[in-house]
Specification:
780 residues, alpha/beta, six-stranded mixed beta sheet, five-stranded antiparallel beta sheet, 23 strands, 49% helix, flat
Amino acid sequence: MNEHSLSVLEFDKVKENISEYAILDETKDKILEIIPMKDINSIKKELENVQDFMDMLKYDGGIELSEIKNIVMYLKKTSLIGTYLDIEDLYHIARNLRIFRVIKTKFQELEGKYRELHMRFKDMPTYKGLEELIEAVIDNQKQIKDTASLDLRDIRYSKKLIQNNIKRKFDDLISNPSYAKAIQERIVTVRDGRSVIPVKTEFKSQIKGIEHDRSSSGQTVFVEPISVVSLNNKMRELQVREREEIRKILLRLTDNLRNNLEGVMEVGEALLTLDYLNAKCSYGLDNKCIIPKLNQREYISIIEGRHPLINPREVVPLTFELGKHYNSLLITGPNTGGKTVALKTAGLLTVMTLSGIPITASDKTDIGYFSGVYADIGDEQSIEQNLSSFSAHLKNIQIILVGVTRASLVLLDELGSGTDPIEGSAFAMAVIDYLKEKKCKAMISTHYSEVKAHGYNEDGIETASMEFNAETLSPTYKLLMGIPGESNALTIAKRLGILPEVIEKAKSYISEDDKKVEGMITNIKEQSDELEKANEEVQGLKIEAEKLKNQYAEKVRVLEKEKEQILEKAYKESEEMMKNMQAKAKALVDKIQKEDNKKDEIRDVQKSLNMLRNSMVEEKKKKLMMKPKIVRKISYGVGDKVFVKSLKQHAIILRLFMNKDQAQVQAGILKMVVSLEDIGLMKEEKKKTYTKIHSHKGSSANYKIDLRGQLVEEAIHELENYMDRATLNGYSDIQVIHGKGTGQLRKGIQEYLKTCRYVASFRDANMNEGGLGCTVVTLK
């Protein structure tokens, strides 16, 4: 990648922002050294890892890295045999080994969700044994424990005894009235590693001992009483032995690390990588970034792209594409209108993608793979950079023209500016033609009329402009595709009150060709505005048509349902009539069964009745099932609060049964299944009113329910819904028909009834009620 191009795109500033999220200085340095990757597979792999890590941060709490250290740096100290790490180094190594082990375990548990992360670290070793070995020796205050070794325990025990003896000796001395005047302060302090007391200089002869130090004023001497000299000597010996024992312990721990040095180094590198990923992803989440699609073609489609260095509350999103229908995009418009920002946004988002960094755009954005990104941008709006001279621009453009290939993205700001407009326009058009021949992807900004006309008339070049509000005399920073930018200089001058004769004189100096170009641009702008207005009207009509379509579909659905209900009622009545006729026919058969001469007549009657009933059944199926059911469109879902008309109460939707046009709702403690017809959307109450309710009925329920042929779970679910309705209708007894069969359904239902809140008692039905094939339930 061209270093100058990355610099003018301000990629370094983006990296600095990302580095602020890193914990380790080494990670910050690594981020500041990021450059676009050259291998597309490496880019894809990195983007997949970043996507997984961002999702994990967002949905699964991320990982804890606040205590990580660069243990690789500590481990390098062990390269020489005989050297050992200090207590703090070992403590941090143990903590970081534990941190990585916990992180790896989390990745394993979430393998199904974040496969790329799991695969990246799954082969990394963990060292629980080493962690525990170090933690058994070093406590959380970074001190060697007494239990680190038997010798250390004995030494510290002896030290404690001697210290107690020393304290007792000093207590006796200090509390002795004979020495009250001699002692400066009733405290014990340490000089040269030995316990001493402060004594007034004029009384030092009263206390026999060794003088170790004097105060700066000379008023106090620090004396080691002769009674504690031997104890202090023993204490010094024990301190030396303690330091030696700690050295042996640290040496032993370091040797253990040295034996596993390669694997522990891998863990250290893995933690650096995790810090690196965490920094990029934390930046991405805080700035509402996404991972774009990466294609292998030289194609860009940026949807609602935002410049990452501009305040999110002020930036205007840009949407455009390049490389699909045209290879060059020519952007025109006034100065300070946002052309430079548009070019920088395209270049910066592309470079960030190629570097494996989340970008500030919509997730529908598609970025192609480019082997080179070239930019020559003289940012006139930047206070950090002076306007480049024409010669400096030419030097940069020369480098770009030599290095450009089909797989390059070229960004040129104000091409041809800084010199005579006629020659500058000619130069700009020549460069555009050269880039077009190279078939690279190019975004170029200009305000020259000749260049605008050239771009508009050439195939493979799309024109665009930064919108300018002539009413407010200010740019809107919106990118208008397909529309060249018109000149606004005289319009602005007129609105600012410049004399009309000066404006007219200025117009007379504009060449006829320039007037034609500006006229063409104005005409295109007017046509575009008309098309946009027409498009808005069409969209409005489409929305209205869709609304009417839904209304008519609902009416058809209601009519179809009413038709089905009417037909079903009619067929039920006819079935009842047929059952009565069959019963009478059976009675007649029983009565005259013994009369042989009428048996043939009886068979004919029975056969006719059966044929009639079967034809009615077939006709019913045909009428009721020949048309597909129209699914109701609803504007509520599970968890929404609705109004149940029959209850005149609000309720919460628990489940929807769209195939049955029903929903399970809960109103207070009551759960029940109601028709979707019975549900209304909850309206915001303007004023709370109280209505006296005399009576109401729930949905109808028969006193019998037939559950034969169902699984136990299905039967219990249907029985619970049925008892909701039965209770609401005031039934005291119901019959549950489950059949005899294997007895499993009967057993499952009766087990459920034992704990059901609706049931007062239940029993097997009498023989005339269905026997063991039916259970009679008494409701509360």
